[in-house]
Design goal:
The protein has 245 residues and is α/β, with parallel strands linked by helices. It is 33% helix and 32% strand. The protein folds into two domains: 129 residues, Rossmann fold (3-Layer(aba) Sandwich); 110 residues, Beta Barrel (OB fold (Dihydrolipoamide Acetyltransferase, E2P)), CATH 2.40.50. The protein contains six helices and 15 strands. The strands form four sheets. Strands 2-1-3-4-5 form a five-stranded parallel β-sheet, with helices on both faces. The chain has a five-stranded antiparallel β-sheet with strand order 10-9-8-12-11. Strands 13-14-15 form a three-stranded antiparallel β-sheet, with no helix packed on it. Helix 2 runs parallel beside helix 3.
Length: 245
């Protein structure tokens, strides 16, 4: 598994020091890792808008330009709907703590940051997010992407392309097949309803004989060859839900 780490700080020496701590940890743990260092919130946001997601973003609060670290976190969560990247805020002051709550950071580090702090953060990330079933991974060209499975509404396959429809209305399309999708997904969360559709059952509002109604109002077909399997899954699902009550 490849870890992607972002570091955003307008002090290039400090940013490079954090990068070195992260790389040293990766060498010690024999972990594959990629890092990107940014000197402004604007540069960091531009990268987040167009490139693969980071696993962890070490984000300084007091950036020198208009876009500070709090704003980067807020726009990342709200406008980009990015709940995958775990934010680790860095500051020389403790007074920011309450302002950061809405951006759901993984941690908050006070400068000066020690190597031990970075090791603790990385260990915490591994402990919580080491289950790859929580994410769906794919490539667009040579760029790797990772999407949290809970934000995926459904997969649609057309020819040699797979389209991923996400809960914020955005989509991702890449070259692949449904058989490759099925190797990654959790079959208890994602059900194949058609040779061209795999659906996250959390986003299904209603099951009908030959279609499902999504909570967004969209309708997807259940093909004849999948109907019996879906009925059996629904029966088991409803029995499990009753037993939990």
């Amino acid at each position: 598994m490849m870890y992607r780490i972002g570091i955003c700080d307008d002090d290039i020496a400090f940013g490079c020091q954090i990068e070195e701590y992260v790389k040293e940890y990766a060498r010690q743990e024999n972990i594959a890792i990629e890092t990107e260092v940014f000197l402004s919130g604007e540069d960091c946001l531009r990268y987040l808008e167009t490139s693969a997601l980071f696993d962890v973003l070490f984000l300084d609060i007091e950036l020198s330009r208009r876009v500070n670290g709090v704003t980067v976190g807020r726009l990342m969560r709200r406008d980009l709907a990015n709940e995958v990247t775990q934010i680790v805020y860095i500051s020389a002051y403790e007074s920011y703590a309450m302002q950061l709550f809405q951006n759901r950071p993984l941690d908050f580090l006070i400068k000066p940051v020690r190597k031990e702090d970075i090791i603790r953060v990385m260990e915490e990330y591994k402990r919580i997010f080491s289950d790859k079933k929580m994410f769906f991974e794919f490539h667009i060209g040579k760029t790797p992407y990772r999407i949290a499975d809970h934000v995926i509404q459904y997969f649609q396959c057309s020819g040699k392309k797979v389209r991923i429809v996400i809960n914020n209305g955005t989509e991702k399309e890449y070259y692949g097949s449904m058989s490759e999708v099925e190797k990654q997904i959790d079959p208890d969360k994602f059900w194949a309803i058609h040779k061209s559709y795999i659906v996250n059952i959390s986003y299904i509002a209603e099951f009908r004989i030959d279609e499902v109604v999504m909570i967004t109002g969209g309708i997807l077909p259940i093909s004849r060859s999948y109907r019996k399997k879906i009925q059996e899954k629904l029966l088991r699902f409803n029995m499990m839900r009753r037993n939990r009550k």
